[in-house]
Amino acid sequence: MWIEPKELLLLLPGLWTGEMFSKYFVLQKRRGHGESGGFGSMLVGTFDSVMSTKPAPYRILHQTPSSEISYEIAIATTQDEIVKDWEWLQVNLFNVLNEMESEEEVTNFTLCKIKSLFAQNNQDDPGESADFKVKTSTFKSIFKMPEEERLVNTYAATYVKNKIPRKGHLYISLNHICFHSYMLGQEIKRIIRFAELEDISRHGNIIYIKTTNNMQYNFTLIFDASEAHSLIEQLNKMAIQQLIQNPESPVVDHDTSRLTRLGAANTKNSKKPVLLRDLTARQKSEEFRVYFRLPQSEIIDGKIKANIYTPYSKRFNSGHILLSPNFLCFRSDVKDLVSVVIPMKTIKSVEKKDDGQQRYDNQIVIITSENVPFVFAQIIDREVLISKITDLLSRIHIPVSRERAKYDISWSKQTALMNTFKTNFSAEMQKKQEEKLARWDSHFRDFGRGIGMFRTTDVINLIVEGIPDKLRQEIWLIFSGAIHDKEMNPGLYEDLVEKAACIKDCFAHDEIDRDLPRSLPEHPAFQSPDGIAALRRVLQAYALRNPQVGYCQAMNIVTSVFLLFCDEENAFWMLASLCENLLPDYYKDKVVGAQIDQGVLNELVETHLSDLHEHLDQLGVIKMISISWFLTIFMSVISYESSLHILDCFFYEGAKIIFMIALQVIEWNRDKLRRCQDDGEAMLVLQKFLEGIHNPDYQVPPSTDKRKTERTQTQTVQTLIHEAYTKFGEELTQQRIEELRNKHRRLTMRQFDIDNEKTIVKAFVDNPYFERDELHMLLTIIREEKMALKSVQQQQKTHANMSEAPSFPQSPARAAPGDSSGARHEAYCVNYEVFHTLFNELTPWRKCTTVDIGEKLFRLTDKKSTGVLDFGQIIHALGLVCSSKYTEKLKLMFILHLPPLLSKSEVERARRPRPRNKDDAEEAIEAEDFFDDDPSESIEALPSPSDHNFDADDYALVSATQHMYNLAGISGHTFRDPLRTPNLSLNSNASSLPAQPTRASTFYVDLPSDLAAGGASHGTTNTRADAGLDEDRDIGLSQQGRHESIDTFSDISDLGAAKLTPPQPTAAEQLMLNVETISNFSQISDLVATTRMERADSNNTDTRSLGSLGYLLDQPDDSSSNRRLLPHMRKENFQLLWRSIIEILGCVQDEEMRRAYENMIEMGNSNIRKEPSVESFTQLNLGGSGDEQPDRNGNPTTSAAEPTSTTRLFIALEEELRQAALLSGSESISSGKPTPPSSSNASSDSYGWNISISQFIATVLSVPTIVKGFITRTNILEQIELLQKKRRKCLSTNY
């Protein structure tokens, strides 16, 4: 980019290397830029870090041969950008400069041309310097920030790591604090989000920061430490407020257009970045609005030193004039001496005053529409002030109330209810009211009336004494600022009332109607239909105006008091000012504003009443009193006539008076509270004291309520307010309150997170995968990743391909209003992006690159296509993958490679890689082959880790697999040891089988109650195979419904299956048995599917075995069952499944894995031309006639099948397998990955090829390498800590 030419005397050739040269120009690159090593680059990088110099890595210098002075004319952060500028010089200047006669002429022409280019390129620029643009580019490059993240400022800072100081730069952006240092080849990066800050403090030049995950940082700034600290506090406040306003989008996006000031031309010479100046203006504007009670839209435009003439004292008072688009305000230098608010729309003229004795004082006179003159003098730049006022007046827009037809004529505005329901004052009370009214009239004559009155300490004194009932509406509207909102929105209230009346079935309206009878019930105005109707209209209208707040309890109480003294529309704007300006966030969900001020009160008690704080903190009293006191401004705990006095002061002082009154009440009851032993006793002490506060100037007729007549008077409200001002008024300033609010805003939001986590952990603590501390850490990382979601999405838009981040519809079920439990759980629901990040960062299956397992798992778990997973689903999905349940993990891996999760298009793409495009993501979601056309129904048919019955079939699968091992001659104990290797090769010889024709293994059978009883009834003829077993154990098993059996070849008939071999098999028959066993593996899924049955109860879940499987085998098929079988897997999908397993195991495949792969290929080949009429192992005999009696275990008996026919069946099957082996002999996996079949024979070789989950599980469980890889449990705590460390250090991710 072109820059303002900068003169350079020292070129420092050791720090720069020349890249391009010409007679008058040279293009240089910073030494070491883009180089990974080298001593020179290391020294230059260290020099830049220590000396706080961060120049652009590329620059162009203009120099003449005979001159020692050079000029920097262009800089850039990339080579392409600087080369573009160099090419422009070649085309436009090189030839022109060569024709000039003198070097001086060359230099002058070059500098003028560059200045012109700089001005042309920056005419529409916001005014950032070239150096700051370079810093911004460096910031985004180092920390990989998205383009939308705006840098605010940078500071030279030192960060201490392991007691070693690291000199570098502190980058402060809208959402992050970042630190970067490069010292002798050691690079340090730190990234901290403002939303995760828990504590911020400054001591001298050191800024201390603590995050929510208990990480502590301290940065030492030699210069501008105060500015940096204030900036961090402000941005943290903005981040937390954004989190309160919109928890789903916690990223701050500062809109500078709102802060475009009319005096911006005067700031162009400032060296500070534009965004920093805007944020400073934002902070000042907020203070400006709070002090003068102005609308939220007002932005301070300028501040000018001036004096104001006060007619009541006949003298000038020094201060400052502050301008905004709609107001001219004055504030004295002496605190609370005098202030004035003049609406721009009321200014009739602005004139200079150059006559009289003060003609040299630069005076101006502003006359309002009420002919009230305001004289200002000693104005530093009077012409500028008059010009600004004139400009503002030309832009002023005065809203006009338009005439319109009423939609509903059934209602009319209610006037102040005190006019209808008048208070019957005694003669003495009426006299006091008239005396107060006379004092206010005298004050109005001296200080003015209305918005433009002179606001002095005399006003405070009058308010403390009490405002007369007739003036309350006027005074409240002015000092609350509600008058400004009303005048800027004429007719809005009528619109809201009529629109709200048309809304049906509204939760807020139901809440309002429920609370109406409880709104100031002691006053007759709210026992009448008019008062109740007016209150309902105001509350419903505000709920429509501010849906984020809607309606909150306590709003009805304060609104009812407003309606007593104000008409209906004014009461509405008073309520709006209370909720939006005076007590922000008080009436939102969780009354977060009141809880923040609860923390503020707690700290104030610790500061001012330190001897009492520890005792109150132990009792928990402050947490109990603050909400009820603050939400209703003491109206719910102090009598109505006394609370009016506090309300008068509240509209002038704001929240300050609430803290003052609370401190004073606690101090007066100090001794009694010390003696309290529990919170109930302490609350009773405070309750009795507050009920006894009375107002002698506002005594109403005696109440009929006996409880009120029995109250003991404790103190007058006038004394309470006076003592509170005297003791705490000076120390408790608005600035102090805001500082404490910022601090406790962070702590309160953090406490919300902690409470939510405890509630959710309690709900899921019994999950089978994670411990309590692991659940807490998982919730923490979910919250952190969700907060960073917007930045991640912005980066993915730039760097990721659309097909790698498929879009999912998001329609999560929203929690109903008031459903705090649903809101808690919803806060930890994650969408696809967050889940994919967690899966790839925390689980060992991230190693799988051929198939996106994370995407498949998300779709499988999110069967209803809501686009989000709740925390329970996350636990089961991530928990299973990280657990040591190797059988379930292998089952899940099998399911994730089935259609429609793994579609045909993805299989083809994996087999023949091609460039990805956007359509691939759409193809990947289509259902294929096995299921219906609706992909959602197809996916729902697959079991998910979050299903309660995900492993419901495992007992049958494992038992059937064990029996198949037994048939192959493998000991039952071998199956229990997952790392022992049974030999399942087709080439195994007869020596692998046992020498004895029978082998014994004990297993237990669970039977239904009726058959268990039947088995007991036949127990008289029971013969035991092992007479040495003691009688007691048999009795115990019988009582449990479990019966012992001896597993032998002859026992097969007990299961309803025929004998498969002669008692004394020959070698050929043993080989046939081995082939038969492999064939029978293909039938395990049939066996398991037929024996599906819900377990009776949790106590029996681990006691199922093959005996019960045999019983269930003979039960009639339940056609009404809605459970669907898992489909078999095609060859292409299986090859990707095997490749995924190899990748998870680290791309290592041993001989046993190769042999297992070959076996499964043979199994699939054996299924190619299998006719339905051919009898399988599970179909040989499914039970005899209904007249047969069950055996001693309750299983049906059956006769054996004919050995000759069985032998012929398997001889034919053996021949088929041998032919299939010849066809698949060309396939090789010696490279470590299965080689896909060639395209020429793929269709014929894989057509009809399939393998069941039973075959797959039974085979892979025999491979120690696979079992060892899947049985290893992942420590989720270590993975989360590693991820957090990566985020803090800006390290690259795993995917």
3D structure, described in words:
47% of the residues lie in helices and 12% in strands. With 1295 residues, it is α+β, with helices and mostly antiparallel strands. The strands form 7 sheets. It has a 7-stranded antiparallel sheet, with helices on both faces. Strands 16-15-14-13-19-18-17 form a 7-stranded antiparallel sheet, with helices on one face. The radius of gyration is 42 Å and the shape is globular. A hairpin with a 4-residue loop joins strand 13 and strand 14 (315-323). Helix 11 (457-465) packs antiparallel against helix 22, helix 15 (507-515) runs antiparallel to helix 16 (529-545) and helix 28 (734-764) crosses helix 29. It has 52 helices and 27 strands.
Read across the widest sheet, the strand sequence of neighbours is 9-8-7-6-12-11-10
Helical run tally:
52
Give the N-to-C terminal Cα separation: 35 Å
Mean pLDDT: 75
Structural class of the helices, strands and pairings?
alpha+beta
GO biological process, one term: system process
GO molecular function: GTPase activator activity
Keywords: GTPase activation, Repeat
Protein name: TBC1 domain family member 9
In brief:
By secondary structure, the chain is α+β, with helices and mostly antiparallel strands. The chain is built from 52 helices and 27 strands.
Question: Any chance you could write out the topology, listing elements then pairs?
Answer:
Blueprint: E1 2-8, E2 16-21, E3 25-30, H1 39-50, E4 58-63, E5 70-76, H2 79-92, H3 94-98, H4 103-121, H5 130-143, E6 151-161, E7 164-173, E8 176-183, E9 186-193, E10 197-203, E11 206-211, E12 216-220, H6 225-245, H7 274-292, E13 302-310, E14 315-323, E15 327-332, E16 339-343, E17 347-353, E18 363-368, E19 373-377, H8 382-395, H9 417-420, H10 427-447, H11 457-465, H12 472-480, H13 482-488, H14 492-501, H15 507-515, H16 529-545, H17 555-565, H18 568-582, H19 592-608, H20 610-619, H21 621-631, H22 640-653, H23 656-668, H24 670-675, H25 679-691, E20 693-694, H26 706-709, E21 715-716, H27 717-728, H28 734-764, H29 772-787, H30 789-799, H31 820-826, E22 830-831, H32 832-842, H33 853-861, E23 868-869, H34 871-882, H35 886-896, H36 904-911, H37 918-923, H38 935-940, H39 954-967, H40 972-976, E24 1002-1006, H41 1009-1017, H42 1031-1039, E25 1042-1046, H43 1067-1081, H44 1084-1090, H45 1106-1113, E26 1129-1130, H46 1131-1144, H47 1151-1166, H48 1203-1223, H49 1239-1246, E27 1250-1251, H50 1253-1260, H51 1264-1271, H52 1276-1289
Biased composition (Low complexity): 1196-1205
GO molecular function: GTPase activator activity
Region (Disordered): 792-820, 907-945, 1178-1205, 1225-1244
